[in-house]
What does this fold into?
Amino acid sequence: MTDRSVVDTQRALASEAPNAGPWQLGWRAVGILAVLAAIGLHTYFRRYEGSDWHLAYVWTATLFAGLTVLALTRRLLVATVFVTLLVTIIVHAAAAKHQAMNMSVHAYDLFFYLSSFSTLSFLWASYRTELLLLLAALLGFALVLVAAYVMDATRVRRVVSVPLMLAFAVLTGLSATMKGERRHTQQYWEDLVVSTFYSSVPETIETLWRGQLIDAATTASGPLFTVPAGCGAAKKPPHIILIHQESVVPPEYFPGLEYDKRVDGMFRSGDGTLRKMRVETYGGASWLTEFSVLAGVSTYSFGGMRPFVQSLMAGRVHDTLPQALARCGYRNTVIYPLDKNFVSNGKFYTAAGMPEIFDKQAQGAKTGNERDHFYFGNTLKLLSEHVRKSDQPLFTYVITMAAHGPYLQPYQPEVNVPGGGAGTHPEMNEYLRRLSMARMDLEAFKRELKTRFPGEPILLVQYGDHQPIATRHYLGFGDVRFAEDVAITKDSPGFITYYSAEGINFDMPRLPEVEVLDVPYLSTVLLQAAGVPLSDSYRERRRLLDQCQGRYDSCADTAKIMTFHRRLIDSGLVDAR
It folds into this structure.
């Protein structure tokens, strides 16, 4: 090929503006800036965005974004400036959101926070400085892009940029597949923020295309659900203590496992029956179970948005379990082991109807995973003071932490309790030690309730929020290190925990007889066990419980659940946009 033909080929693919001014940048200057930008981005990606396929994903997605801009504008400087500023804004916005809410930035934030006057008012009232900085950054972004557009003398023909854009779209999809699913806790990490944002774009597009956050039928027949102004209970209902047993599962689910059989008793209801419950997370992300328990809706119904369901739906779910109890005069409280702002839980609890949150600081906890008797002791103190001062029934949501992993070191090694038998995996052995302590603390708690409050009816309900990662060795995932990498299906035994209910100083109604209860129905079961009249939506949940045989997301007649969701939306009980 002659020198002239090479030049002609180059001109056919890329050129400079025919009337480029002295203040415009040509290929050499723009090329140097592009190389410097690439070095800066790679330095950041290598340090904060992982390696191997994760690094490949963040790079291919960044290049895909840049090539899309290049195909639209034909200007290399504009594309370079765009991706550089995009990553910069994502990083700084994620840092600001992490500081304020303990969460990373998500693509849906742009729609969620800027699409309504109420959320804008919230941002203006609570995060005015951060909002002004974001708006200034976006304005600066636009101005710099305009300046780059004017100064850019390079031109890249679309016959080059469009095929490259399509190729990197394919490579982005491939690298996303190879790196695996985004971990359900990743939104709460302080690194991987760029890849987290990129991963959130497809699910945001899916949500906007669907037109609502929750899966629902297009239309639904039947009357709208109404929420009564009051309770209508014939007599004062019992105090309710709902214990969220962190990472707790009955060890008898695992045949051949040797352990102290006295532990089995802590999982039985008042009638001596072990009742299985199906949750929607494994090894972590307790807030998913909390949401389903308090809101009475499956997190699966939110698709790819479900890891953020508490923060997204705070104030958007009405007729929650605590709200239903408040109509019956309950004082609603939370005994919480961590800081109340952890993963935005405090905001969700308050919006769901539990404004009194006794978190780590309020309880005077030295650590975030005290023994269960610490939280039970604070519960007894709270109930004693409440009974002395008020005739209201009390609802207390108690969250424990001692059984939470990791299980590589002994928890309170000075406590001599049984673990597992010979040959038990070390992590499971440590987990069983913690269960033995949990059993002792729960039994002591029950004795204290009966001794201290002989004239007070109390409903004690407990449930396991998810299985501990220690069970992975017994589910066939012994080589997996992280809970998020345990790839199990919705019907896997790895999602089965338990719930129990016991009436203290009163006769509790019979509990539903189903093989496995899906977690969204637990609030309905609790209300019935307490003798609290059910609102329209909870009566419908009770009907679905029977018709779907305890299943919710996996109900054989999916249309029933989708219709229920549509009725919730149409009745104003779920704000889905």
Summary: Confidence is low (pLDDT under 50) at residues 5-9. The chain has 19 helices and ten strands. Residues 426-452 form the longest helix (27 residues).
